[in-house]
Amino acid sequence: MAIDVREFDVVVVGHGIAGMSAAVSAMENGAKVAVLERAPFEEYGGNTRYTEAFLRLKNETELFDDFESLLAETGSANPDPVLVHTTTGPYEDWPGIVRSMNFTDAELIQTFASSVVPTIDWLKTFGVKFIPAYLAHVTCREDPPLLAPSGGGLALIEALHAACERGDAEIFYETTARNLIQDDADAVVGVRAVSRRNKRIDFMGRAVVLACGGFEGSPEMLQRYMGASAVNTRPVARGGHYNKGEGIRMALDIGAAPAGNYGGYHANPIDPRSGRPEAKVLIFPFGVLVNKKGHRFTDEGPGADHRIYDGVCHEIQDQPEGKAFLIMDDRINDIDEYTRSIFTDQPPVEAQSFDEIAEKFGLPADSLKITMADYNSACRDGPFEPTREDGLATEGVTPPKTNWARPVDRPPFLCYPLISAPILTFGGVKVNTKAQVVNSDGEIIPGLYAAGEVIGLYYRNYAAATSVLRGMVFGRIAGADAAQIQAP
Fold first, then answer.
1. Mean pLDDT of 405-417
2. Parent domain of 79
3. Three-state DSSP state, 163
4. What is the count of structural domains for the chain?
5. Are 463 and 139 contacting, i.e. CB atoms less than 8 angstroms apart?
6. CA angle 284, 368, 363 (to 5 degrees)
7. CB neighbour class for 321 (10 Å; exposed up to 12, middle 13-18, buried from 19)
8. Residue 306's domain is classified under what CATH number?
9. Domain identity same for 180 and 159
10. What percentage of the chain has pLDDT greater than the value 70?
11. Which pLDDT does position 137 carry in this prediction?
12. Is the C-alpha dihedral spanning 70, 75, 80, 86 positive or negative?
């Protein structure tokens, strides 16, 4: 049977903010563009569709002061300082081993930072409006607001989608990229894909932009890189289920250099009973977390903002069945508007005793009562201040609780089950400042670009409010450069 072959200038894989930015940017630079999207039309947009899309800007013209330093801080693990020192010279003089090294180099960070405001200005030309926005955790009330698109990530996607429809871009829904196509010189010249009923289609072009997300929707890749307990997680929103890692795998298969922390992800604790996107329960620092055995397993209160979510979520993932149970008492009402940190559409489980909690959640009652008695006896008197880290810590109990440690013994008790829900994975491929993918020898792979979550940028911790920015900035850069590649 004849293979269906479609000819374009640039082939973009993915319909989230990275893919849409790449498609529109390539189109503006004269390219005929194909966009491949695994999801049906009704669900296009990947994770971007479901996110508030917080952006690390003070306003439309100013980044947060720590933008570059935070990316540098989260941009490596323990790199060789001698090799890192070679990056002080011009990029073209860097040894190949350094150009492919598993860290986020200063040139990439500088390009990212300098491109943010021009990209915001560019998005405004499509009708996107930006507003101040606060994160949901209780302690953020004294923090300056971030920037966000009015209407969240969906507003970004819809604005750029409309631009694609007005221009020379064709979007193929329910179409999944499987492999990259290379010519005799090993340049990337297309994508082998399948549509409904496993129909093969080859999309040929002068360049390919991989912008199809990470692998939070791939049980196989999650368990390969994060261990068997990764089976206990689920993506934080429906869009994440479409992110199965093919873009990363395809690039690695042809020699792309890996980058980012493959064993890490950014996550929120969510209520597993809820089917709504981002059913987050972020009030846990003000209660007690126990596992299926009725035991505490973590310091619930090292902080109360985004900086602690990943660590707590990884610990929840490793508990029996990957479940934790948040127990709060009537004292939670001392915190003004605490429900602004709760996004699940399911009500808390109410109980009048620890025996009732154990019965409703299937926990061993004796263990739970001992755990709660040990915790409550370890709490000390002191000033309680929910809007900042107050140092009100336990004494003589393991694990300790370092802030907001008040007894939980005043019914009625309010309880939520929790699981870890990855928002984005950290592992991806290495790119240069033009968003060109480099191979394991530090050389560019001709015709191949990456943007968004496919780019490996973070190590150990997430630089908050930079992921959507990464997609829009490097998508725009990739699309513009890809459009300039000339046909042989």
1. 98
2. 4-264+426-482
3. helix
4. 2
5. no
6. 90
7. exposed
8. 3.90.700.10
9. yes
10. 99
11. 75
12. negative
Confidence (pLDDT) at 140:
53
* 293: DSSP letter: T
Range 95-99 contact pairs with CB under 8 angstroms and sequence separation of 24 or more: 95/442, 96/441, 96/442, 96/443, 97/441, 97/442, 98/442, 99/430, 99/432, 99/438, 99/442, 99/443
Distances in whole angstroms, Cα of residue 261 to Cα of each of 214, 225, 251, 265, 461: 12, 9, 16, 8, 9
Kindly report, residue by residue over 75-114, the tens digit of the pLDDT: 999 989 998 889 999 999 999 999 999 999 999 999 999 9
Strand 33-37 to 10-13 pairing: parallel
The verdict on 174 and 294 lying in the same domain is no
SS3 450: strand
The runs of H, that is alpha helices, within 243-328 are 246-253, 306-317
Burial of 58 (0-12, 13-18, 19+ CB in 10 A): middle
The structure tokens 């297309």 sit at 190
Instruction: Choose the final residue of a domain: 422, 444, 471.
Output: 422
CA distance 388 to 112: 31
Distance CA 329, CA 158 (A): 43
**Alpha helices in 6-54, H assignment, sequence order:** 17-28
Q: Output the six-digit token pair for 83.
A: 């090799």
CATH of the domain at 203: 3.50.50.60
Both tokens assigned to 437: 């993918």
Residue 77 is encoded by which pair of tokens?
Answer: 């693990």
Length of the chain as a residue count: 488
Statement to judge: residues 460 and 441 lie in one domain = yes
Block residue for tokens 């390969």: 224
In this structure, the answer to whether residues 470 and 414 fall within a common structural domain is no
Cα–Cα distance, 85 to 89 (Å, whole number): 8
In the numeric block, the tokens 């991989």 are attached to: 210
- H-run or E-run covering 170: strand 169-173
Looking at the structure, tell me whether residues 49 and 158 fall in a common domain. yes
Sequence-ordered list of residues with C-beta below 8 angstroms from that of 92, at least 6 positions apart, any chain:
none
- Judge if 295 and 157 occupy the same domain: no
What are the two backbone dihedrals, phi and then psi, of residue 172, each rounded to the nearest 5 degrees?
-110, 105
Q: Which of 422, 444, 460 is the last residue of a domain?
A: 422
pTM: 0.96
How far apart are the C-alpha atoms of 37 and 175, rounded to whole Å? Answer: 5
CA gap 400, 409 in Å, rounded: 18
